[in-house]
């Protein structure tokens, strides 16, 4: 488990992989840029589970062009806290072009 605070972009970023990746039990707070946790262009299976993501710049958990992921039992709150932006709320969990992806038992709040 890791603790990530005040990251300049994504708190945890997995890109261009093709092997199983397990992102579990982490605490990600105050990511100034984009996402708390991001999987982008990932072709291997993976798991995003039991993480706490708070006050991410745009998205709590982002999956783009990835497959075979399980996104379960995460707590995501206050997404869309991009500094200098007011009144805009982004998604707590956002998946696009995510094939064979399971999203269940997560808690998302403003």
Entry keywords:
5-stranded parallel β-sheet, globular, 4-stranded parallel β-sheet, 13 strands, 110 residues, mainly beta
What topology emerges from the helices and strands here?
Layout: E1 3-5, E2 12-15, E3 21-24, E4 27-29, E5 35-40, E6 46-49, E7 52-54, E8 59-67, E9 69-72, E10 75-77, E11 93-99, E12 102-104, E13 107-109
Parallel strand pairs: 1-4, 2-5, 3-6, 4-7, 5-8, 6-9, 7-10, 8-11, 9-12, 10-13
Quantity of strands, as a count:
13
- Tally of alpha and pi helices: 0
Regarding quaternary structure, what we see is: single chain
Strand content: over 45%
Low-confidence stretches: none
Helix content: under 10%
The averaged pLDDT comes out at 89
Question: What coarse outline follows from CA principal-axis ratios?
Answer: globular
Give, in spatial order, the strands making up the sheet with the most strands: 1-4-7-10-13
Largest sheet: 5 strands, parallel
> How large, in whole angstroms, is the Cα Rg?
13 Å
Instruction: Tell me the structural class.
Output: mainly beta
The rounded distance between the terminal residues' Cα atoms is 24 Å
**Strand-and-helix sequence, N→C?**
EEEEEEEEEEEEE
Overview of the structural elements:
The protein is mainly beta and 110 residues long. Helices cover 0% and strands 51% of the residues. The chain is built from no helices and 13 strands. It has strands at 3-5, 12-15, 21-24, 27-29, 35-40, 46-49, 52-54, 59-67, 69-72, 75-77, 93-99, 102-104, 107-109. The chain has a five-stranded parallel sheet, with no helix packed on it. Strands 2-5-8-11 form a four-stranded parallel sheet, with no helix packed on it. It has a four-stranded parallel sheet with strand order 3-6-9-12, with no helix packed on it. The two termini are 24 Å apart. The model has no long low-confidence stretch (mean pLDDT 89).
């Amino acid at each position: 488990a890791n603790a990530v605070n005040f990251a300049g972009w994504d708190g945890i970023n997995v890109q261009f992989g093709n092997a199983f990746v397990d992102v579990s039990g982490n605490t990600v707070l105050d990511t100034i840029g984009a996402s708390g946790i991001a999987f982008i262009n990932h072709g291997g299976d993976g798991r995003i589970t039991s993480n706490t993501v708070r006050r991410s710049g745009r998205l709590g958990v982002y999956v783009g062009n990835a497959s075979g992921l399980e996104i379960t039992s995460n707590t995501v709150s206050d997404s869309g806290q991009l500094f200098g932006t007011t009144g805009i709320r982004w998604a707590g969990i956002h998946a696009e072009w995510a094939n064979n992806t399971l999203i269940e038992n997560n808690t998302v709040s403003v």
